[in-house]
Design brief:
This protein is an alpha+beta fold and about 190 residues long. It is built from 6 helices and 3 strands; from the N terminus they run αααααβββα. A 3-stranded antiparallel beta sheet has the order 1-2-3, sandwiched between helices. A hairpin with a 6-residue loop joins β2 and β3. α1 crosses α2. The radius of gyration is 17 Å and the shape is globular. The relative contact order is 0.11.
Length: about 190
């Protein structure tokens, strides 16, 4: 309940799908995630996860109490699928990428990059019920940096680090990646 506002609505409230999608992406609203996830059949979820190259959490017998963390490659694949419009139509893929570029969270990948650069990204955080001693099990930011004619996917994930330190680390990795690509581009 740390992100978003949808949890404040009374049960069985009508919320348009567009609003749920926007809250899920722009505000990282976990209630919106649950609303969409639970509205799909297992077969539909299987189909989505298969096409975006990720494991379906339904396959974990401890889900939803223990969520297996995705790898950077799995998360990057989801962005590749959106960028290439290889699962959704181009119009729907562009709509979602546009929402990802409007996210409220600007402290990780975008920090230290030029403010005019479009960055379609999403943060994520997870804690693990079985290890409450860790201040933060996982914090990450993944997305597409639309660098001139050379957009790139970046996915930085941390584990076992508090959020502030993780945020700084991700921002540093992002800035170093951008500087490397920019330097390469200048010498080409």
């Amino acid at each position: 309940k740390k992100y978003g506002e949808l949890y404040k609505l009374p049960d069985f409230s009508y919320v348009p799908l567009r609003t749920v999608i926007e809250e899920m992406i722009i505000s990282s609203d976990n209630t919106a995630v649950s609303m969409i996830y639970n509205s799909l059949t297992k077969e539909e979820r299987d189909d989505v996860f298969y096409h975006i190259g990720q494991r379906n959490p339904d396959e974990n017998p401890e889900f939803p109490y223990v969520v297996e963390l995705y790898s950077p490659k799995e998360l990057a694949n989801a962005y590749r699928v959106l960028y290439n419009s290889s699962f959704l139509t181009r119009k729907n893929s562009q709509y979602l990428l546009g929402l990802l570029a409007k996210t409220k969270f600007r402290s990780e990948i975008p920090r230290g990059l030029p403010s005019n650069l479009i960055i379609a990204h999403k943060i994520g955080e997870a804690t693990m019920a079985s290890n409450k001693d860790l201040p933060q099990v996982s914090f990450h930011d993944c997305g597409i940096v639309y660098y001139s004619q050379r957009p790139y996917i970046i996915c930085a994930m941390t584990e076992g680090v508090d959020i502030k330190e993780a945020s700084n680390l991700i921002a540093s990795i992002s800035e170093k990646t951008y500087n490397y690509i920019n330097e390469y581009d200048m010498h080409k």
